[in-house]
Amino acid sequence: MELYVTLGAQRYRIQRPWGAVPDGAGRVSDVATDAEGRIFVLLRADPYVDSAVATVIVLDAQGKRLDAWGEAVADGHMLAVGPDGCVHVVDRDAHEVIRFEPDGERLGALGTRHAPGAPFNSPCDICFAPDGTAFVGDGYAASRIHRFKPDGTPDGGWGEPGRGPGQFCTPHAVWLNNAGELAVADRDNSRVQIFTQAGEFLREITDVHKPMDITSDAEGNWWVTDQVPRLSIFSRQGALIGRARAVLNGAHGLALHPDGSVLLAEINPSRLTRLMPV
Asked: DSSP assignment, residue 245?
């Protein structure tokens, strides 16, 4: 039996589980793609009880495994591909964002490993502007967005605990659209806040329940997964374009592939789901 969903004018076939992702070696936590169409799947393992495993699985566009690396990642939460093609893994409870070559060679990091508060305190996610400026959602034990210059130099930030504009309760995911607007999935306030890159509040989207991840398409529309569970598309200004229930328990990670498919990272059950246009 095959299942389908519709998002706006586009119909998709649900494919799950999809891709050569190992079963039992960590749980699928996030997914990202690069300009070449490679897919990077992040697995979350517990270093206290799990054997050391490759935490980043690299797939081609058909789901065939190309590589696996990242055994030194302690608690992979989210990952993102920067404009230079490097892969950045948010090592949440190590309080560090690690920068890797696509083949897994460690190049450097933001934050101080195993040093909470310097500056991260269990960070959640990272995203990039085209020039390499980075934004980190510091979301589990902090309520802040950090900004870094392309060379990694800290460049300020904003946020504090609360429910008002520019305040957060678990800034769980961050993303820049092609208009240069920064969206923050303010998960436990059940909203998406949208800012300028300087931190000026622009607007919010409240028609979500505990949003998990966010991305955008070529038109600047926002794609949001939440814990209903569902996947929603909103216009840049926040109008609902389409909505579907595509996974069982809410996708923790989300990526749009250059081939038009949608990739959803599910922690429970641990798997990758693909929505294929039909």
From this structure: -
